[in-house]
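Collaborator request, handled under Task 6.
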Amino acid sequence: MDELDRRIEKCKRILKGNPNSQIFAALADCYLKKGEPRKAYDICANGLRKYPNYGSAHLVMAKIALSISKIELAKKSLQTAIAFNGRNRAIDYWECKIAIEAGELRKAGDLISKIKRWNRNNSVIAELEYMLYEAQKTDDNPNRKPQNIHYGAQNKVSAINQKDTLADNDKNRHITVDSMIKSIASLPSMEYAIAFNFNGDVQASYGENGKIETAAEFGKAAVHGLRHGLSKAGFGELKGFLLEADDRTAFLQNMGNFYLLCEGDSKINLGVIGLQISEMLKQLKG
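Structure tokens returned to the collaborator:
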């Protein structure tokens, strides 16, 4: 019996001892995570008949409704949860997911910007940005229907498993550093990509020649300066850094056996790019 099953059994024992317990919301949430949204719906709906003012249960109902493509119910349940409990990070996250599935992409983009202010580098951002990215590609289709999404361990949306990624989907195919750098530099809004070894020497590069030369000098100085400075300050090994200006974004990232330096314009989608790079790394030759 795994942890989720143990939690389900615990909730059921509590409900058996006290049928009026508000633990029904937790039980419904567990069944949703297990990939049984219909069962979760029945449990949550029955509980809400007894406790219509239980805000947390309305949030669970919003999640369940989204998983079975009942978008209007999801929106209504979420607004009820907000009315009773106010706004919090979980509300923002689920409101963004609902907005994407409802085709309210501008609203979803605004919510992602809001979420970034409290958790910029979390995998949550990458997941939401990829969902928005996928939705934007089909937004010109008037017959677009919400996806039927489940949130169990077997069915949870996983951006790195999406078919439409620039990384090769054939997991048995290996790529080289050169081909990886070329693929990264070819991503939307990206201007160049450079791989440095740990001595700061260029291992591979792709992009406009003039910018490559300038960036290579900057990257070499950054690798040497930051590695030495961080080590001297007791911060350990350099993992990476991000530079943002009004219209430019650049980042240096430790890829395990080389440093990656990239630069793009203000439209660069770091969440999507990060997921695509992660997928490429799985195929990179040792």
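The cover message to the collaborator said: "Confidence is low (pLDDT under 50) at residues 141-172. Strands lie at 190-196, 202-207, 240-244, 248-254, 259-265. Please let us know whether this matches your experimental observations."
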